[in-house]
Amino acid sequence: MNKLKNILLLLLVFILTVVIAFYSENNYRELVRQLFNFFQGDKIKFVGKNFHLFASPYLLVAFGLFCVALTVLLYGQSKKRRLIYFGLTILLFFITTIATTFVDSTGFVVECTACQDGVRNLHYNEINYDFHFITSLVVGLLPFLWTFFKKQTSKR
User: The pTM is what?
Assistant: First the structure.
Protein backbone atom coordinates (compact mmCIF):
# COMPACT_ATOMS: atom_id res chain seq x y z
CA MET A 1 0.00 0.00 0.00
CA ASN A 2 2.86 2.37 0.77
CA LYS A 3 4.35 2.00 -2.73
CA LEU A 4 0.99 2.79 -4.31
CA LYS A 5 0.71 5.89 -2.13
CA ASN A 6 4.20 7.03 -3.21
CA ILE A 7 3.44 6.44 -6.88
CA LEU A 8 0.20 8.38 -6.66
CA LEU A 9 1.98 11.21 -4.85
CA LEU A 10 4.66 11.39 -7.56
CA LEU A 11 1.98 11.29 -10.26
CA LEU A 12 0.20 14.17 -8.55
CA VAL A 13 3.48 16.10 -8.33
CA PHE A 14 4.06 15.50 -12.05
CA ILE A 15 0.57 16.68 -13.05
CA LEU A 16 0.64 19.77 -10.83
CA THR A 17 4.07 20.83 -12.02
CA VAL A 18 3.13 20.35 -15.66
CA VAL A 19 0.17 22.68 -15.09
CA ILE A 20 2.44 25.19 -13.34
CA ALA A 21 4.92 24.99 -16.24
CA PHE A 22 2.09 25.50 -18.73
CA TYR A 23 1.10 28.77 -17.09
CA SER A 24 4.60 30.04 -16.38
CA GLU A 25 6.34 29.23 -19.66
CA ASN A 26 5.61 32.66 -21.10
CA ASN A 27 7.31 34.29 -18.08
CA TYR A 28 10.44 32.22 -18.69
CA ARG A 29 10.43 33.16 -22.37
CA GLU A 30 10.18 36.81 -21.38
CA LEU A 31 13.09 36.40 -18.94
CA VAL A 32 15.27 34.91 -21.69
CA ARG A 33 14.42 37.79 -24.07
CA GLN A 34 15.20 40.34 -21.35
CA LEU A 35 18.55 38.66 -20.71
CA PHE A 36 19.27 38.76 -24.45
CA ASN A 37 18.61 42.51 -24.45
CA PHE A 38 20.57 43.01 -21.22
CA PHE A 39 23.69 41.28 -22.51
CA GLN A 40 23.67 42.68 -26.02
CA GLY A 41 22.06 46.07 -25.44
CA ASP A 42 21.03 47.65 -28.72
CA LYS A 43 22.68 44.96 -30.83
CA ILE A 44 19.58 42.72 -30.80
CA LYS A 45 16.13 43.83 -31.82
CA PHE A 46 13.13 41.52 -31.65
CA VAL A 47 10.95 41.75 -34.74
CA GLY A 48 7.70 40.21 -35.88
CA LYS A 49 4.81 39.14 -33.73
CA ASN A 50 5.32 37.35 -30.47
CA PHE A 51 2.91 34.57 -31.41
CA HIS A 52 3.13 31.60 -29.13
CA LEU A 53 -0.04 29.56 -28.95
CA PHE A 54 0.82 26.49 -26.87
CA ALA A 55 3.52 25.65 -24.39
CA SER A 56 6.30 23.42 -25.60
CA PRO A 57 5.66 19.78 -24.70
CA TYR A 58 9.40 19.28 -24.10
CA LEU A 59 9.42 22.06 -21.54
CA LEU A 60 6.31 20.72 -19.80
CA VAL A 61 7.56 17.14 -19.56
CA ALA A 62 11.06 18.23 -18.55
CA PHE A 63 9.74 20.38 -15.70
CA GLY A 64 7.40 17.61 -14.56
CA LEU A 65 10.20 15.04 -14.52
CA PHE A 66 12.53 17.52 -12.83
CA CYS A 67 10.05 18.08 -10.01
CA VAL A 68 9.43 14.34 -9.61
CA ALA A 69 13.18 13.72 -9.45
CA LEU A 70 13.55 16.59 -7.00
CA THR A 71 10.81 15.13 -4.81
CA VAL A 72 12.43 11.69 -4.83
CA LEU A 73 15.88 13.10 -4.09
CA LEU A 74 14.58 15.36 -1.29
CA TYR A 75 12.84 12.45 0.40
CA GLY A 76 14.78 11.28 3.41
CA GLN A 77 16.90 14.42 3.68
CA SER A 78 16.94 16.53 6.83
CA LYS A 79 15.15 19.88 6.75
CA LYS A 80 18.44 21.74 6.73
CA ARG A 81 19.76 19.74 3.76
CA ARG A 82 16.46 20.13 1.92
CA LEU A 83 16.66 23.89 2.29
CA ILE A 84 20.32 24.01 1.25
CA TYR A 85 19.88 21.75 -1.77
CA PHE A 86 16.67 23.43 -2.86
CA GLY A 87 18.28 26.87 -2.65
CA LEU A 88 21.35 25.61 -4.49
CA THR A 89 19.13 24.11 -7.19
CA ILE A 90 17.30 27.39 -7.73
CA LEU A 91 20.57 29.32 -7.74
CA LEU A 92 22.17 26.96 -10.27
CA PHE A 93 19.03 27.11 -12.42
CA PHE A 94 19.23 30.89 -12.75
CA ILE A 95 23.01 30.98 -13.11
CA THR A 96 22.79 28.45 -15.94
CA THR A 97 19.98 30.39 -17.62
CA ILE A 98 22.06 33.55 -17.44
CA ALA A 99 25.18 31.80 -18.79
CA THR A 100 23.42 30.05 -21.68
CA THR A 101 21.56 33.21 -22.71
CA PHE A 102 24.82 35.16 -22.67
CA VAL A 103 26.53 32.62 -24.91
CA ASP A 104 23.51 32.28 -27.23
CA SER A 105 22.94 36.03 -27.55
CA THR A 106 26.62 36.62 -28.25
CA GLY A 107 26.47 33.92 -30.92
CA PHE A 108 23.52 35.58 -32.63
CA VAL A 109 25.34 38.93 -32.72
CA VAL A 110 28.63 37.41 -33.89
CA GLU A 111 27.03 35.45 -36.75
CA CYS A 112 25.50 38.64 -38.11
CA THR A 113 28.14 40.04 -40.43
CA ALA A 114 25.87 41.94 -42.79
CA CYS A 115 23.39 43.42 -40.35
CA GLN A 116 22.17 46.92 -40.99
CA ASP A 117 23.71 49.34 -38.46
CA GLY A 118 25.13 46.37 -36.53
CA VAL A 119 21.71 45.45 -35.15
CA ARG A 120 20.66 41.81 -35.34
CA ASN A 121 16.96 41.44 -36.07
CA LEU A 122 15.79 38.37 -34.22
CA HIS A 123 12.37 36.79 -34.50
CA TYR A 124 10.80 35.79 -31.21
CA ASN A 125 10.80 32.09 -32.07
CA GLU A 126 14.42 31.96 -33.28
CA ILE A 127 15.56 31.48 -29.71
CA ASN A 128 15.59 27.89 -28.51
CA TYR A 129 13.86 28.45 -25.17
CA ASP A 130 13.63 24.70 -24.52
CA PHE A 131 17.41 24.37 -24.65
CA HIS A 132 17.92 27.12 -22.06
CA PHE A 133 15.22 25.73 -19.77
CA ILE A 134 16.15 22.04 -19.92
CA THR A 135 19.87 22.75 -19.59
CA SER A 136 19.16 24.87 -16.52
CA LEU A 137 17.03 22.12 -15.00
CA VAL A 138 19.70 19.48 -15.53
CA VAL A 139 22.44 21.65 -14.04
CA GLY A 140 20.13 22.48 -11.13
CA LEU A 141 19.85 18.77 -10.31
CA LEU A 142 23.60 18.16 -10.28
CA PRO A 143 24.10 18.71 -6.51
CA PHE A 144 21.34 16.20 -5.75
CA LEU A 145 22.65 13.67 -8.21
CA TRP A 146 26.18 14.09 -6.87
CA THR A 147 25.14 13.36 -3.29
CA PHE A 148 22.79 10.57 -4.39
CA PHE A 149 25.49 8.71 -6.33
CA LYS A 150 28.05 9.43 -3.62
CA LYS A 151 25.69 7.90 -1.06
CA GLN A 152 25.05 4.87 -3.29
CA THR A 153 28.74 4.17 -3.80
CA SER A 154 29.50 4.53 -0.08
CA LYS A 155 26.92 1.84 0.71
CA ARG A 156 28.85 -0.75 -1.31
Answer: 0.88
